[in-house]
C-alpha cells in the first residue's frame, strides 16, 4: 500500500532476519540504538516494530531485560502477549500502545466525526490552556480530549482498549511520575500537537489525523527517552561522586 506505515516495513525486515536465522529462537535482539542505526530509522520506529512483532508472536518483550525471539509455536510464544490481564507497565510501553491505538482511532474518526464532537474538542483545547500547570486538571482534560476522539471512531473495541490504557495512565504511580517529569516542560508543543489533530479531523482527512496523532506520541516518546538517558547519567555521576569520596577518605586515613 502507498501509505504503508514505516514501523510495519521495519517489522517485516526484522521478521526476515529471524527467518533467515540471523536471530535464532531464544536469542536477544540488539538494543534499540544499534537496531535503529542498522535499519536507518528512529528508536521509536524500532520499538513500534517490536511491539507489532510481539503481537504476531515473533518476539517477546521483557521489561527491563530486552527483546527476545520466540521459540516454536506452543512454547514460549504461545501466551507471551497475554500474560496478565493488568501487567505492570512502564510509561514508555504504555505510550507506545497508546500511539498505535489512538492514531488508528483518529483515522477512523476523521470521516464520521460530528460537528458537536469537533466543537467539544475546540472547547477542550481552550481548557488545556486554562489548566496551565495544574497537573490533575490538565490530565483530566487530556483524557477527555483523547476519549472524545476514541468515541468518535465508533469502534467499541477500540474505545474499550483506549479507556483501559488511560486507566494505566491515571492510576499507575510510576507512569504518573514519568509524565509529570516531562509534561511541565512541553506544554506549548503538546498544545500545538493537539490543535493539529483537531484540524486534521475538521478536514475529514484520515491520513492526516493518523499522522498528527502519531507525531504527538512520537515526540512524547522521544521526551521520555531523553529523560531516561538524563536520569541514567545523573545516576552514574552520583555513583562516581560516592566512589571519589570514599577514595579521598581512604587516602586521608592512610
UniProtKB/TrEMBL annotation:
Keywords: DNA-binding, Transcription, Transcription regulation. One of its GO terms (molecular function) is DNA binding. Residues 4-72 form the HTH gntR-type domain. Gene3D superfamilies: GntR ligand-binding domain-like, Winged helix-like DNA-binding domain superfamily/Winged helix DNA-binding domain. Pfam families: FCD, GntR. It comes from the Bacteria. PANTHER family: TRANSCRIPTIONAL REGULATOR, GNTR FAMILY, UXU OPERON TRANSCRIPTIONAL REGULATOR. This is FadR family transcriptional regulator. It comes from Caulobacter sp. 602-2.
Amino acid at each position: 500500500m502507498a501509505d504503508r506505515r514505516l514501523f510495519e516495513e521495519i517489522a517485516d525486515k526484522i521478521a526476515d532476519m529471524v527467518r533467515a536465522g540471523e536471530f535464532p529462537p531464544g536469542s536477544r535482539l540488539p538494543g534499540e540504538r544499534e537496531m535503529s542505526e542498522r535499519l536507518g530509522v528512529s528508536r521509536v520506529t524500532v520499538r513500534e516494530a517490536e511491539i507489532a512483532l510481539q503481537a504476531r508472536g515473533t518476539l517477546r518483550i521483557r521489561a527491563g531485560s530486552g527483546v527476545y525471539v520466540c521459540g516454536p509455536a506452543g512454547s514460549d510464544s504461545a501466551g507471551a502477549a497475554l500474560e496478565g490481564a493488568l501487567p505492570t507497565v512502564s510509561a514508555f510501553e504504555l505510550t507506545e500502545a497508546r500511539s498505535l491505538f489512538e492514531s488508528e482511532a483518529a483515522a477512523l474518526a476523521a470521516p464520521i466525526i460530528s460537528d458537536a464532537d469537533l466543537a467539544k474538542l475546540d472547547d477542550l483545547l481552550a481548557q488545556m490552556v486554562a489548566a496551565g500547570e495544574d497537573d490533575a486538571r490538565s490530565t483530566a482534560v487530556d483524557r477527555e480530549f483523547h476519549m472524545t476522539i476514541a468515541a468518535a471512531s465508533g469502534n467499541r473495541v477500540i474505545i474499550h482498549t483506549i479507556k483501559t490504557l488511560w486507566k494505566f495512565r491515571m492510576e499507575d504511580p510510576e507512569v504518573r511520575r514519568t509524565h509529570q517529569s516531562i509534561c511541565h516542560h512541553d506544554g506549548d508543543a503538546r498544545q500545538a500537537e493537539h490543535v493539529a489533530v483537531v484540524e486534521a479531523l475538521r478536514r475529514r482527512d484520515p491520513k492526516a489525523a493518523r499522522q498528527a496523532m502519531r507525531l504527538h506520541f512520537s515526540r512524547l516518546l522521544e521526551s521520555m527517552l531523553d529523560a531516561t538517558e538524563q536520569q541514567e547519567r545523573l545516576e552514574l555521576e552520583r555513583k562516581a561522586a560516592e566512589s571519589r569520596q570514599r577514595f579521598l577518605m581512604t587516602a586521608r586515613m592512610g
